[in-house]
Amino acid sequence: MQTDLTIYKDTPIAKGVNIQLRFEFYNLFNHPNFRTVVNDLSSGNFGKVSAQTLPRWWQVGAKISF
Fold it and tell me: Which of 3, 22, 29, 42 could anchor a disulfide with 61, C-beta 3.0 to 4.6 Å?
């Protein structure tokens, strides 16, 4: 299970003009999310996980609206 969190703040900077600051966190608790499992019985690695998605990551954004 992947846990995401978004925090944002709307701030007026002038009459009719607002700015929104956003902080978004993905996979907040760094839970492994497996992508590729070997499913070839003859490979000798059957059932082995060979890749996973990115670990914890985040992004920052800003939006001005008027």
Answer: 22
